[in-house]
Amino acid sequence: MFENLQEKLQRTFKNLRGQGTITDENISEALREIRLALLESDVNLTVVKATIDHIREKAIGTQVATALSPTEQIIKIVHDELVEILGKDTAKFKFSSQPPSVILMAGLQGSGKTTTAGKLAAWLKKGGHRPMLVSVDVYRPAAREQLAIVAKSVGAQIYIGKTGDDEAGTPLVERLAKEALREARNFGNDVLIVDTAGRLGIDTALMDEMSKLKALLNPSEILFVADAMTGQDAVNSADAFHKQLGITGVVLTKMDGDARGGAALSIRNVTGAPVKFLGTGEKPDAFEPFHPDRIVSRIMGMGDLQTLLERAEEKLDRGKAEEFAKKALSGDGFSLEDFRDQLRQIKKMGSMQSILKMMPSVGPFQGLQQAAENVDEGQLTRTEAIINSMTTKERLNHEIISGSRRKRIAAGSGTSVQEVNQLLKQYGQMRKMFKGLGSGGGKMQRRLMSQ
Ligand code: GDP
């Protein structure tokens, strides 16, 4: 997501850096490029105009000397302005004081509403909540079945209810909603997520039904789920929904597929409703709260180490990491068994591509984000397969892995002898590097102590 904008802004800043001093002329040139970059990223025209005006005003007013160089000042102004249009602070997720809190999911068909209901349940569970799901889409039995599958996959409770012989329509919707609320109360669920019927467009029947559900359930959140790939259509439908119903936030799905990101950058400014979450893939954990400052850092090429650290904190086993570091730096090196452990830890963090994309693209990290494009995700799996095909003895002492053993390992892992050779070579280099780091650290420590 945001790849286009990111690339263009970085080029603009690079050009500015190359110029040494900032003049009115090159500021104008930079503003022109930023404007184009925003437009090409499908950001709403009014938002683009306002943003450029603000940046110009601030840039002109900031000729005073500060600790920052003029180029850095401009970068900071653009950064702050983008954060501003995204709504500055992270919009909080609201719970009601009287549980269960009801979350009403709204959106057009195919926007990713049902998938998102499941993702939200998984996210809430991680936060220690006990969500219950219910689908009140009484028009499409398949939709209700889909929610049941989603609920199962994230291990969340679901209220199915009976549609009976009632005629599908708003009264049935209301009955199901009321029953689910009672059920959630009885089971002690503190959140009830209500998946509603999606329609092809915003029509009066849909709005009527949503208004009735709103009145009946008094939800603490009404989340409008919009497909980011539809660009300005997503912005317009969110706007229409907000005007008619009053939503509390937007979830933008399919951000993984939208390289432009214009919808994410426009919604807050156009509708007044904040983006609260992003959907970044089909899996239940491809979901993240929307933090304006972190998103802008990503766009500006400063990476998003904060999110990466949080992900590491959540997924990784700290004890294991410390043990590994000790072993690797101790001088005896680390075994292929430890190497495999590390690979498994990395895999838990998500795809290599998603990890690399959160790295800054400046300074010592330069090139990592671009490297993400060429990452062969299968490589990790193949490497693990090769190590799996070794015996424990071999994993603990790589030196015994002779030519015939290499052949056996290649056949067992469905790879080639070259790949096995390459892995062993890389492993050898890593051992050496870690050893060097370890003894270097020791020397440094001794030197410090002798002073
Ligand atoms: P609904 O009709 O609004 O309930 O939409 P669904 O939840 O059935 O989703 C429609 C399609 O979009 C499904 O194939 C989902 O797997 C897919 N989808 C949902 N969210 C995302 C996302 O964040 N990224 C991607 N790539 N696909 C998504």
From TrEMBL:
UniProt keyword Ribonucleoprotein present: yes
Alphabetical GO biological process terms: SRP-dependent cotranslational protein targeting to membrane
Top-level taxonomic group: Bacteria
Keyword Amino-acid biosynthesis: no
The protein's enzyme class: hydrolase
Self-association and partners: Part of the signal recognition particle protein translocation system, which is composed of SRP and FtsY.
Protein name (record): Signal recognition particle protein
Source organism: Terriglobus roseus (strain DSM 18391 / NRRL B-41598 / KBS 63)
